[in-house]
Every structure is written in C-alpha cells, then in structure tokens.
Design a protein that fits this description.
It contains 8 helices and 11 strands. It is globular, with a radius of gyration of 18 Å. The longest helix has 18 residues. It has a single domain, classed as TIM Barrel, CATH 3.20.20.30.
C-alpha cells in the first residue's frame, strides 16, 4: 500500500495564512525525503461559505507542474481535479505533457466539483454536473489511453482530436475518479483505473462505500479487483488537534504507532493508496 500526503495549498489562519510556493515546495521535498510515496493537491478557485470571508487558493496545475520539476521520485496527484474548470480535450493534453515533465509520475484524479460559489464567481456552468462529467470522461480517457478520439456531445466536443506527441507511458497515465452517488460510481467502474473515497478516519465506513462501488462494477460487467481503491484519510496530531479541517467528521489520532496501526488496517482491507 502506498501512502501520500496532501500539501498545504490554501489560506489557513491557523497555519499562518496563505502558504507561499516556497513553503509548498519545501513541504513536497520533506515528504519525498521522508519516504512518502506521493504528494497531492486539490483543485479549487476560491471558497465562499455563508457569513465568512472569501478564502483563497493557488491554481493547481501551475503549482503541480513546478513540483514535478522540483521533485524526483514521489508520484504527484490531483485529489481531485475539477473537470468542469477546463476543456476536457485540453485537460488530457495538459496531463499527458505533465506526465512527460514528471517522467511518468502523475496520477490524474478527477471529480465533478461541488462548491457552487467558485463556479459562479469564475463563470463556470454548475448545471448537469454528472452529464458533463460523463462526456468529459468519454474524451479524456480515450485520448490518454489511445491518443485519439472523435467525439460530439451535448456539452463538449473533440472532433478528430489527437494527442501528439505522447507522454512516457504507452497506455497513458492512471485516471482516478472520486465518486459516491450511483451514477458517478457507474462512471468510475466504466472509465477509471482507481476509485477514491474521502475523507475517513478509522476504516469502518469503507465497507459500505466499497459495496456500492462493487455493485456499480457488476452493472457494467467489470471485475472490481481491476479497480484500485484509494482512500483520503484525516490524520490528527498526537495532542488531538486536527491537522486539517477542524470540522472533519472523523480522523485518526494518537501516537505514531497507533496511527501506523490504523493505516495498516486499511492495507489489510486491500486499499492500494492512502492520501493523508
């Protein structure tokens, strides 16, 4: 089982405000030196919640590209990239290029988005999210895997589209989809190399979520063993103070050995990658 970490990326008053790129880069190099398997960034444009000030965040692709150059070994991933923010064919082109820059270390995590205020502020349509996501996957996955697609949909098109040159992996980079609802789980089973569920603490809730994924696999006649399971896990410092979102529904906490034992429990359940 691989273990990775989400890097600080957005404004956080408890952590000293907005992290500079220099700080993000330093954390990435620390993670690599410590032996972690992967580093991850999440994709937002801003956060706006009722009766709160706007919270800022850097643009993911620019920073991820810089980290691909700064690091040498760790995989770099998106947890997850909000597909509606970018044209899907161009997104595939960007991903294939970044996989070349990173020498085959990119994990392309994809999602449909959920935070409407950022969609509204940047003029991105928020309607028919699942339908738009389905069309986008119908463009992104064949482009990455075969290098070409000819697609005309309601929301997106990629007529006679081709990726040239190709990145370092003949069959393209792995696509991870974050999903929970029935339609999104079916799309995961149909298109993805791995599935992500988040954010958990102890592993007990995983069984119910995984059963729904396996049901979706049965609907599309896919062997669930061919779909890697990845889990986002909240981890707290030993004193019990959450290391991330203080409103997270659950988290792992305790001594390093206690947290290690909890992480190992995920391994025993067959999880392929933990994102902490």
């Amino acid at each position: 089982m691989k273990i990775g970490v989400v890097l600080p990326f957005a404004e956080d008053a408890d952590a000293g405000g907005m992290p500079s790129y220099a700080t993000i880069r330093e954390r990435a190099l620390q993670a690599e030196a410590a032996g972690l398997d992967s580093i991850w960034l999440y994709d937002h444009l801003l956060f706006r919640f009722p009766d709160q000030s706007t919270v800022g965040i850097w643009e993911i692709w620019t920073v991820l590209s810089a980290l691909a150059e700064a690091t040498e070994r760790v995989e770099i991933g998106t947890v997850v990239l909000c597909v509606p923010f970018r044209n899907p064919a161009i997104l595939a082109k960007m991903a294939d290029t970044l996989d070349e820059v990173s020498e085959g270390r990119l994990i392309l995590g994809l999602g449909a988005g959920w935070h409407q205020p950022e969609f509204d502020a940047f003029g991105v349509p928020f309607d028919h999210k699942a339908a738009r996501f389905e069309e986008a996957l119908g463009i992104i996955t064949p482009l990455l895997r075969e290098g070409s697609v000819d697609y005309q949909g309601t929301y997106y098109s990629a007529p006679n589209c081709e990726l040239r040159p190709r990145g370092p992996r003949p069959r393209g980079l792995p696509v991870m989809v974050a999903s929970s609802g029935p339609r999104m789980l079916r799309l995961t089973a149909q298109y993805a190399d791995s599935w992500n569920t988040a954010w958990l603490g102890p592993p007990e809730p995983l069984a119910e979520r995984r059963a729904k994924l396996e049901a979706a696999c049965a609907e599309v006649n896919r062997d669930p063993d061919t779909l890697e399971v990845t889990v986002g896990v909240n981890v707290s410092y030993e004193d019990g103070t959450p290391a991330g979102d203080t409103e997270a529904p659950s988290h792992l906490s305790g001594s390093p050995s206690e947290i290690a034992a909890a992480l190992d429990a995920y391994k025993q359940l067959g999880v392929g990658h933990l994102i902490c």
